[in-house]
Amino acid sequence: MTSQEQEPWQWDEATWRGHVERVRAGRSLAPKSWPGGARAAVALSFDNDHETIPLRDGEVRPGKLSQGEYGARVGTPRILRLLARYGVPATFFIPAVSALLHPEEIRTCLDGGHEIGMHGWIHERNMLLSPEQERDLALRAVDTLERLGGVRPVGIRTPSWDFSDHTLPISLELGLDYDSSLMADDEPYEILADGRPTGLVEIPVEWVRDDAVYFPMDRYTALRPYTSPRQVLAIWRDEFDAAYAEGGLFQLTMHPHVIGHRSRMAVLAELLDHMAARSGVWFATHAEISSYVRQESGLPRRVAAWTDAPSPNQ
Ligand SMILES: [Zn+2]
User: Ligand 1 centre and the CA of 20: distance in Å?
Assistant: First the structure.
Protein backbone atom coordinates (compact mmCIF):
# COMPACT_ATOMS: atom_id res chain seq x y z
CA MET A 1 0.00 0.00 0.00
CA THR A 2 1.49 3.39 -0.97
CA SER A 3 1.39 6.40 1.32
CA GLN A 4 -1.21 7.88 -1.06
CA GLU A 5 -3.62 5.06 -0.20
CA GLN A 6 -2.98 5.15 3.52
CA GLU A 7 -4.94 7.19 6.01
CA PRO A 8 -2.86 9.93 7.62
CA TRP A 9 -2.73 8.08 10.94
CA GLN A 10 -1.09 5.17 9.13
CA TRP A 11 1.74 7.25 7.66
CA ASP A 12 5.26 6.59 8.86
CA GLU A 13 7.39 9.47 10.06
CA ALA A 14 9.16 9.91 6.72
CA THR A 15 5.78 10.45 5.04
CA TRP A 16 4.28 13.05 7.36
CA ARG A 17 7.61 14.78 7.79
CA GLY A 18 8.07 14.80 4.01
CA HIS A 19 4.73 16.53 3.45
CA VAL A 20 5.59 19.27 5.93
CA GLU A 21 9.14 19.79 4.69
CA ARG A 22 8.23 20.11 1.02
CA VAL A 23 7.65 23.87 1.28
CA ARG A 24 8.49 25.39 4.62
CA ALA A 25 9.69 28.56 6.32
CA GLY A 26 13.45 28.91 6.56
CA ARG A 27 15.38 31.66 8.26
CA SER A 28 13.63 34.86 9.21
CA LEU A 29 14.49 37.84 7.04
CA ALA A 30 13.17 40.36 9.57
CA PRO A 31 15.70 43.20 9.36
CA LYS A 32 17.29 44.83 12.40
CA SER A 33 15.93 48.15 11.19
CA TRP A 34 13.91 49.47 8.30
CA PRO A 35 15.16 52.06 5.78
CA GLY A 36 15.89 55.50 7.17
CA GLY A 37 15.62 54.18 10.70
CA ALA A 38 11.89 53.53 10.31
CA ARG A 39 10.31 51.64 13.16
CA ALA A 40 7.90 49.52 11.12
CA ALA A 41 7.04 48.71 7.52
CA VAL A 42 3.65 48.73 5.84
CA ALA A 43 2.97 46.76 2.63
CA LEU A 44 -0.49 47.34 1.18
CA SER A 45 -1.68 45.11 -1.64
CA PHE A 46 -4.70 44.95 -3.91
CA ASP A 47 -5.60 41.82 -5.86
CA ASN A 48 -7.35 43.09 -9.00
CA ASP A 49 -9.41 39.96 -9.59
CA HIS A 50 -12.38 41.81 -11.11
CA GLU A 51 -14.36 39.48 -13.42
CA THR A 52 -11.89 36.58 -13.13
CA ILE A 53 -13.43 35.08 -9.99
CA PRO A 54 -16.76 34.22 -11.67
CA LEU A 55 -15.00 33.45 -14.99
CA ARG A 56 -12.65 31.01 -13.25
CA ASP A 57 -15.69 29.09 -12.03
CA GLY A 58 -17.35 29.16 -15.45
CA GLU A 59 -19.91 31.61 -14.06
CA VAL A 60 -20.80 33.89 -16.97
CA ARG A 61 -24.01 35.60 -15.84
CA PRO A 62 -23.83 39.34 -16.61
CA GLY A 63 -25.08 40.13 -13.13
CA LYS A 64 -22.28 38.23 -11.44
CA LEU A 65 -19.65 39.61 -13.81
CA SER A 66 -20.80 43.17 -13.12
CA GLN A 67 -19.86 42.74 -9.46
CA GLY A 68 -16.27 42.19 -10.61
CA GLU A 69 -16.43 44.92 -13.22
CA TYR A 70 -17.09 47.37 -10.39
CA GLY A 71 -13.55 46.70 -9.18
CA ALA A 72 -11.96 48.02 -12.36
CA ARG A 73 -14.51 50.72 -13.10
CA VAL A 74 -14.89 52.24 -9.63
CA GLY A 75 -12.71 50.45 -7.07
CA THR A 76 -9.23 50.82 -8.54
CA PRO A 77 -9.57 54.51 -9.53
CA ARG A 78 -10.93 55.29 -6.05
CA ILE A 79 -8.06 53.38 -4.41
CA LEU A 80 -5.46 55.13 -6.58
CA ARG A 81 -6.87 58.53 -5.61
CA LEU A 82 -6.72 57.65 -1.92
CA LEU A 83 -3.14 56.32 -2.12
CA ALA A 84 -2.07 59.44 -4.02
CA ARG A 85 -3.56 61.62 -1.31
CA TYR A 86 -1.35 59.91 1.29
CA GLY A 87 1.65 59.45 -1.02
CA VAL A 88 1.62 55.74 -0.24
CA PRO A 89 2.80 53.08 -2.73
CA ALA A 90 1.11 49.69 -3.02
CA THR A 91 1.36 46.45 -4.95
CA PHE A 92 -1.38 45.42 -7.37
CA PHE A 93 -1.49 41.69 -8.11
CA ILE A 94 -3.37 41.28 -11.41
CA PRO A 95 -4.55 38.11 -13.17
CA ALA A 96 -3.57 38.34 -16.85
CA VAL A 97 -7.20 38.11 -17.99
CA SER A 98 -8.09 41.07 -15.73
CA ALA A 99 -5.25 43.01 -17.28
CA LEU A 100 -6.40 42.13 -20.81
CA LEU A 101 -9.98 43.16 -19.98
CA HIS A 102 -8.79 46.47 -18.51
CA PRO A 103 -5.50 47.24 -20.30
CA GLU A 104 -5.38 50.82 -19.05
CA GLU A 105 -5.28 49.70 -15.42
CA ILE A 106 -1.66 48.51 -15.36
CA ARG A 107 -0.38 51.78 -16.80
CA THR A 108 -2.46 53.82 -14.37
CA CYS A 109 -1.10 51.83 -11.42
CA LEU A 110 2.50 52.09 -12.64
CA ASP A 111 2.15 55.80 -13.33
CA GLY A 112 1.02 56.21 -9.71
CA GLY A 113 4.32 54.73 -8.52
CA HIS A 114 2.87 51.32 -7.65
CA GLU A 115 4.08 47.79 -8.34
CA ILE A 116 2.41 45.16 -10.55
CA GLY A 117 2.70 41.53 -9.45
CA MET A 118 1.58 38.19 -10.89
CA HIS A 119 -1.77 36.72 -9.85
CA GLY A 120 -2.37 33.83 -12.24
CA TRP A 121 -3.95 33.76 -15.69
CA ILE A 122 -7.69 33.69 -14.95
CA HIS A 123 -7.48 33.24 -11.18
CA GLU A 124 -7.17 29.49 -11.78
CA ARG A 125 -7.10 26.99 -8.93
CA ASN A 126 -3.53 25.72 -9.04
CA MET A 127 -4.32 22.57 -7.07
CA LEU A 128 -6.60 21.41 -9.88
CA LEU A 129 -3.96 21.83 -12.60
CA SER A 130 -1.24 19.56 -13.91
CA PRO A 131 2.29 20.91 -13.41
CA GLU A 132 2.51 21.64 -17.12
CA GLN A 133 -0.78 23.55 -17.13
CA GLU A 134 0.21 25.64 -14.11
CA ARG A 135 3.59 26.43 -15.68
CA ASP A 136 2.08 27.33 -19.05
CA LEU A 137 -0.42 29.73 -17.47
CA ALA A 138 2.27 31.33 -15.29
CA LEU A 139 4.58 31.91 -18.27
CA ARG A 140 1.78 33.40 -20.33
CA ALA A 141 0.66 35.56 -17.41
CA VAL A 142 4.07 37.10 -16.73
CA ASP A 143 4.61 37.79 -20.44
CA THR A 144 1.17 39.41 -20.71
CA LEU A 145 1.75 41.73 -17.74
CA GLU A 146 5.16 42.70 -19.10
CA ARG A 147 3.75 43.40 -22.56
CA LEU A 148 0.93 45.57 -21.19
CA GLY A 149 2.94 47.44 -18.56
CA GLY A 150 6.44 47.46 -19.96
CA VAL A 151 7.80 46.11 -16.67
CA ARG A 152 8.41 42.43 -15.88
CA PRO A 153 6.89 41.47 -12.51
CA VAL A 154 9.30 40.26 -9.81
CA GLY A 155 6.72 38.82 -7.44
CA ILE A 156 3.79 36.44 -7.39
CA ARG A 157 0.68 35.98 -5.31
CA THR A 158 -1.01 32.73 -6.25
CA PRO A 159 -4.76 33.11 -6.94
CA SER A 160 -6.68 32.43 -3.71
CA TRP A 161 -3.25 31.75 -2.13
CA ASP A 162 -3.60 28.32 -3.68
CA PHE A 163 0.06 27.27 -3.56
CA SER A 164 0.47 23.89 -5.27
CA ASP A 165 3.31 21.38 -5.16
CA HIS A 166 4.56 22.92 -8.40
CA THR A 167 4.27 26.63 -7.66
CA LEU A 168 7.73 26.96 -6.14
CA PRO A 169 9.70 25.43 -9.05
CA ILE A 170 7.78 27.67 -11.45
CA SER A 171 8.55 30.80 -9.42
CA LEU A 172 12.23 29.83 -9.31
CA GLU A 173 12.32 29.18 -13.04
CA LEU A 174 10.82 32.63 -13.63
CA GLY A 175 13.59 34.12 -11.52
CA LEU A 176 11.10 35.85 -9.24
CA ASP A 177 12.31 37.79 -6.25
CA TYR A 178 9.47 36.94 -3.90
CA ASP A 179 6.23 35.07 -3.28
CA SER A 180 3.34 36.45 -1.24
CA SER A 181 0.97 33.51 -0.71
CA LEU A 182 2.16 31.65 2.40
CA MET A 183 1.43 32.17 6.08
CA ALA A 184 4.22 30.78 8.28
CA ASP A 185 5.24 34.09 9.91
CA ASP A 186 4.37 37.74 10.39
CA GLU A 187 7.77 38.79 9.04
CA PRO A 188 9.47 38.00 5.72
CA TYR A 189 11.34 34.69 5.54
CA GLU A 190 13.24 32.52 3.08
CA ILE A 191 11.28 29.59 1.63
CA LEU A 192 12.81 26.13 2.00
CA ALA A 193 12.09 23.30 -0.43
CA ASP A 194 12.64 19.83 1.05
CA GLY A 195 14.82 21.48 3.68
CA ARG A 196 16.99 23.29 1.15
CA PRO A 197 17.21 27.10 0.92
CA THR A 198 15.65 28.44 -2.29
CA GLY A 199 16.68 32.10 -2.17
CA LEU A 200 13.02 33.05 -2.65
CA VAL A 201 11.66 35.65 -0.22
CA GLU A 202 8.22 35.13 1.29
CA ILE A 203 6.18 38.23 2.19
CA PRO A 204 3.60 36.40 4.28
CA VAL A 205 -0.15 36.94 4.10
CA GLU A 206 -3.00 35.91 6.41
CA TRP A 207 -6.77 35.75 6.13
CA VAL A 208 -7.11 38.03 9.16
CA ARG A 209 -5.52 40.76 7.05
CA ASP A 210 -7.70 40.19 3.97
CA ASP A 211 -10.90 42.09 3.17
CA ALA A 212 -12.36 39.05 1.34
CA VAL A 213 -12.86 37.33 4.68
CA TYR A 214 -15.18 39.96 6.06
CA PHE A 215 -17.28 41.54 3.32
CA PRO A 216 -18.38 39.35 0.37
CA MET A 217 -21.99 38.35 -0.13
CA ASP A 218 -23.53 35.74 -2.39
CA ARG A 219 -27.28 35.45 -2.76
CA TYR A 220 -27.50 31.71 -3.39
CA THR A 221 -24.88 30.32 -1.04
CA ALA A 222 -24.34 30.82 2.67
CA LEU A 223 -21.71 33.47 2.01
CA ARG A 224 -22.62 36.59 3.98
CA PRO A 225 -20.71 39.54 5.45
CA TYR A 226 -20.49 38.94 9.17
CA THR A 227 -18.20 41.74 10.32
CA SER A 228 -19.03 45.42 10.04
CA PRO A 229 -16.53 47.74 8.37
CA ARG A 230 -15.85 49.44 11.70
CA GLN A 231 -15.02 46.10 13.34
CA VAL A 232 -12.66 45.31 10.48
CA LEU A 233 -10.95 48.64 11.05
CA ALA A 234 -10.42 47.69 14.70
CA ILE A 235 -8.84 44.34 13.73
CA TRP A 236 -6.49 45.85 11.16
CA ARG A 237 -5.55 48.74 13.48
CA ASP A 238 -4.64 46.25 16.19
CA GLU A 239 -2.57 44.27 13.69
CA PHE A 240 -0.71 47.41 12.66
CA ASP A 241 -0.24 48.64 16.24
CA ALA A 242 1.30 45.31 17.28
CA ALA A 243 3.57 45.27 14.21
CA TYR A 244 4.65 48.81 15.07
CA ALA A 245 5.33 47.87 18.69
CA GLU A 246 7.44 44.91 17.54
CA GLY A 247 9.25 46.89 14.83
CA GLY A 248 7.87 44.54 12.22
CA LEU A 249 5.87 44.38 9.02
CA PHE A 250 2.16 45.07 8.58
CA GLN A 251 1.00 43.49 5.31
CA LEU A 252 -2.59 43.86 4.11
CA THR A 253 -4.50 42.25 1.20
CA MET A 254 -7.54 43.92 -0.35
CA HIS A 255 -9.59 43.68 -3.54
CA PRO A 256 -10.89 46.68 -5.53
CA HIS A 257 -14.33 45.07 -5.98
CA VAL A 258 -14.53 44.47 -2.22
CA ILE A 259 -12.82 47.37 -0.42
CA GLY A 260 -13.65 49.84 -3.21
CA HIS A 261 -17.18 50.51 -1.94
CA ARG A 262 -17.80 53.81 -0.17
CA SER A 263 -18.37 52.57 3.38
CA ARG A 264 -15.29 50.35 3.19
CA MET A 265 -13.03 52.98 1.62
CA ALA A 266 -13.82 55.05 4.70
CA VAL A 267 -12.22 52.27 6.75
CA LEU A 268 -9.10 52.22 4.57
CA ALA A 269 -8.85 56.01 4.80
CA GLU A 270 -9.07 55.88 8.59
CA LEU A 271 -6.47 53.15 8.72
CA LEU A 272 -4.13 55.25 6.57
CA ASP A 273 -4.79 58.24 8.85
CA HIS A 274 -3.90 56.11 11.86
CA MET A 275 -0.69 54.72 10.35
CA ALA A 276 0.47 57.98 8.80
CA ALA A 277 0.09 59.71 12.17
CA ARG A 278 2.81 57.48 13.66
CA SER A 279 6.41 58.49 13.16
CA GLY A 280 8.84 56.13 11.49
CA VAL A 281 6.53 54.09 9.27
CA TRP A 282 8.01 52.94 5.96
CA PHE A 283 5.27 52.48 3.35
CA ALA A 284 6.64 50.27 0.59
CA THR A 285 5.68 47.93 -2.21
CA HIS A 286 6.14 44.21 -1.71
CA ALA A 287 9.06 44.32 -4.17
CA GLU A 288 10.75 47.06 -2.14
CA ILE A 289 10.28 45.10 1.09
CA SER A 290 11.65 41.96 -0.55
CA SER A 291 14.61 43.74 -2.08
CA TYR A 292 15.46 45.42 1.23
CA VAL A 293 15.31 42.30 3.41
CA ARG A 294 17.27 40.34 0.78
CA GLN A 295 20.00 42.95 0.80
CA GLU A 296 20.06 43.27 4.62
CA SER A 297 20.31 39.52 5.13
CA GLY A 298 22.70 38.86 2.23
CA LEU A 299 20.27 36.38 0.72
CA PRO A 300 21.52 35.17 -2.67
CA ARG A 301 19.04 35.00 -5.50
CA ARG A 302 18.76 31.64 -7.21
CA VAL A 303 17.21 30.70 -10.52
CA ALA A 304 16.49 27.02 -11.04
CA ALA A 305 15.52 25.22 -14.19
CA TRP A 306 11.99 23.86 -14.00
CA THR A 307 13.22 20.29 -14.22
CA ASP A 308 16.01 20.81 -11.66
CA ALA A 309 13.73 22.23 -9.03
CA PRO A 310 12.60 20.04 -6.15
CA SER A 311 9.62 17.89 -7.01
CA PRO A 312 7.15 16.56 -4.47
CA ASN A 313 7.16 13.18 -6.17
CA GLN A 314 10.85 12.54 -5.74
ZN1 LIG B 1 -7.29 37.02 -6.18
Answer: 25
